[in-house]
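Margin note from the TA: students keep mixing up input and output lines. Inputs are the sequences; the output is the structure of the whole complex. Example:
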Amino acid sequence: MSNHHHKETFITKYVFSTDHKMISKQYLVTGIFMGIIGVFMSMLFRLQIAWPDHSFSIIEAFLGRHQDGGVMTPDMYLALVTIHGTIMVFFVLTAGLSGTFSNLLIPLQIGARDMASGFLNMVSYWLFFLSSIIMVISLFVEAGPAAAGWTIYPPLSALPQAMPGSGLGMTLWLVSMAIFVASSLLGSLNYIVTVLNLRTVGMKMTRLPLTIWAFFITAIIGVVSFPVLLSAALLLIFDRSFGTSFFLSDIFIQGEVLHYQGGSPVLFEHLFWFLGHPEVYIVLLPALGITSEIISTNSRKPIFGYRAMIGSIIAIAFLSTIVWGHHMFVSGMNPFLGSVFTFTTLLIAIPSAVKAFNYITTLWKGNLQMNPAMLFSIGLVSTFISGGLTGLVLGDSALDINVHDTYFVVAHFHLVMGVSAIYGMFAGVYHWFPKMYGRMMNKTLGYWHFWITAVAAYGVFFPMHFIGLAGLPRRYYSNTAFPLFDDVADVNIVITMFAILGGSAQIIFLANFFISIYKGKKAEQNPWKSNTLEWTTPVEHVHGNWPGEIPAVHRWAYDYSKPGHDEDFVLQTVPLKDGEEES
Amino acid sequence: MTAILYVLLAIVVAISIWQIASILNLKSVVATEKDNNVQGILFAVFGVFFYGLMIFSFVKYSVILLPDAASMEGENYDTLYVITMVLILVVQAITQFLLFYFAFKYRGIKGRKALFYADSHKLEMIWTVVPAVVLSGLVLYGLFVWNDVMDTSDAENPLIVEVYAKQFQWEARYAGDDNELGLANVRNIKGINTMGVDMTDKNALDDVPVRELHLPKGRKVIFKFRSQDVLHSAYMPHFRAQMNCVPGMVTQFAFTPSMTTEEMRANDKTIAKVDGINKIRAEKGEDPYEFDYVLLCNKICGASHYNMQMKIIVEEEADFNSWIKSQKTIAQVVK
């Protein structure tokens, strides 16, 4: 591949780059900007739900015609929760997380000069960029952005008569997501091909770091499930614009009967959740992979149960494609299906439990190096357990009946996939920042960032379970219409205060991140004394990653504190000693 | 304009954070032994915060939870719920303790070597099999409760009620003397016939359209749900009941009310909850609240989704019978 020197212009180096390291940075920075928008939106709607009818100048400043005297309109509230969900799930935690770290780490950790197709990789990023731009533009259309919830169930999302957000805003949402799916597929195919074909000498599948296993399996889930979302989006576009009836039937709205006949919204729910549930693992598995790597490195201990970890990733991936119906227990589908999906859903708890226990055992008798990345990884294990356990309530069809679509669900999935995945992303940024930018991030700011975020995250989502168990539905603009809910108002104020605290703490991260790019301390080659291949490349990026030959690999990635070695880490490139057994 | 000021403010805050940190600790990047010590202790402190928050929430927020189930099926629900919650809390308490304790106990010390411990098939077998066994129990009990709720084939003389959803209102229709709902379709909606009942169907004529649900205590009620425009969800939290209303199809849910509205008002947990609510309302100068069952919409359906409700009254069967007799049939309403 490209060992020979070729001239780089500004455009080919920084804009239309085919180098995986540059593309990874592009994904990260785009993801961070989308994240700022998504988190800021959550601050705005939390203000509304805590203090309905109260006038806020910040709402007046940002929401223009969608507010009245500093109070947002109900339609804008729904738009904010919709776009918050869409941006955080897809643009931050799918593209921002998986796009960044799959791109950065797959070639570096398997010993490849670049992705299998640098060109497709570049196209993948720019499609993602285009879809981000369209999504942001949709915020400014006359009637407001899409507002039917991030799940965009028709008929609400199909009929402009049903809500203003279902006009041009919804069209742009669908176009943006269709392009996003194309981007994701190009990326995923590239990851799969690269992992299968471009591993260096000696890098057997059973010697891959768990990060790579996680990215690899994630890409497979993406390839299997994302096309189904594309088909759902296309059919919805047909129903909206060309008069078909895939999802619509027997509708009377605003005084007239519409022509639709024979379709079913339940079909859309099936198509949506066939992607929607695996999507949870597309978000979560890369974060778990990153955590495996960071916990092992910073515990100075091998990851406990390496093969069980791979097995559980594969089991989770397989099961994730046959559990989507647990989002639809009360959708009106056949109750027998509810029984089947309960069974498959609770099965997923087993590999998840194995992972959690293995992380805890990895810490046991370690020599824990408390770098900011390690703090976020331990935080991830904590929120993964807290959020995962309540899945036992929601995954059980019988128990789901009364908590479905309440704040209990909101608390559950924010902890298990939202907070956990974002912790994984932060951990990855702190850990691999030196590999990306050749400089280090400041650890003191990292500590402040973690602790404020950790307190705020539990402060937000722990009390939220209780208002859900009080029967409070999600996506209510205000809870004042029901005197029954007067006693959750105080809890909502507590939650909003923690949310503002947590949101503001991210400014610490942003300051640390952007200023460290220019002013951070120059990185050493292997600052965390890690075993994996990326730390054998020079700090200054070179095209093709290694200036000379690609090193060969002789052992797995987790020989930390191995007896018989002086140092407490052994690079994967170090040959086995005479009589040394491979773990 | 103000928006730009807010953004500028955030940037200023970010820069000042950086400046303060630079003065305090220039270029510190990799954790030292001192950091390990401090951060390890902070994990122990965080563990205390974590358990404190959990205990605080349970003590402080128990009163806002839903009172006892008001349906016979709901009682099974509550048992399963309690079992699951206890299990969750036990596992939560143990695993989080181990996590924070290990983070504290094994915080790094210079020169110490970690234990090289990569695998134990015995341990892994334990934490694969134990969850599997426990989950099997939960699944089986869950399926029993689910079937008990969803299977209505053995119901004797159930009351049939249609609940009808539209932006942003509920309506309902009782099946009348023949206990059979007449056909309906949105294409029949005209004037006062807001539910699109087919007036040529002889089963329809004795149907009773209402705007307030009355249910008899002790008799199984089978709800048939319809929607005329978008998805809605009929959520009756006190009865542990919920089902989506889907345009183009009829969905179903059933339960047997076990407590009249009066009995629920006299329930200890209800009294405690209502007292709490009325204290808040008194502070705001609002009228006191009296408990009522309620049906609310729990699927995003548009601007007034947050205010789509219908009152439910559960009463003794005799009272219910005299109430339903006093209502006009649809044949009397739609001429």
